[in-house]
C-alpha cells in the first residue's frame, strides 16, 4: 500500500489531469510517502500544537480499504491481524 502526503507552503494543493487522464497533485513543496509518514505524524503530534486527527482518519480509512480490497497484500504485510497502523509503526 502506498500512501502519499503532499505539503504546500505556498497555498492550496491543486490537481491536474495528465496526458493519460489520471489526476496528479501539482504545486507541492514536499511529498512524504510510505513508512516515513507515521513517524513524522508521531513527531508532529508530540512536538507541536498541530491537530492531525483528520490526517489520521484518512490513513485509517486507507488501511481499512486496503484490507478489504487487497486481501493478499494486506495478509503478506500484517497477517490476519486487525492492526492500528499508528501503533504498528511506533
Describe this structure in words.
The protein has helices at 37-47, 53-69, 71-78, 85-88, and strands at 4-7, 14-17, 23-26, 30-33. It has 90 residues and is of the alpha+beta class. The chain has one domain (4-88). The strands form two sheets. It has a two-stranded antiparallel sheet with strand order 1-4. It has a two-stranded antiparallel sheet with strand order 2-3. A hairpin with a 5-residue loop joins β2 (14-17) and β3 (23-26). It starts with a strand and ends with a helix. The mean pLDDT is 90.
Structural class: alpha+beta
* Shape label: flat
What is the overall number of helices? 4
Rg, alpha carbons: 15 Å
If you average the pLDDT, what whole number results? 90
Strand order of the biggest β-sheet: 1-4
How many domains?
Answer: 1
> What is the succession of H and E elements?
EEEEHHHH
Oligomer: single chain
Number of strands: 4
Summarize the model shown.
This protein has 90 residues and is an alpha+beta fold.
Could you outline the blueprint of secondary structure elements for this entry?
Blueprint (H helix, E strand, L loop, with lengths): L3 E4 L6 E4 L5 E4 L3 E4 L3 H11 L5 H17 L1 H8 L6 H4 L2
Antiparallel strand pairs: 1-4, 2-3
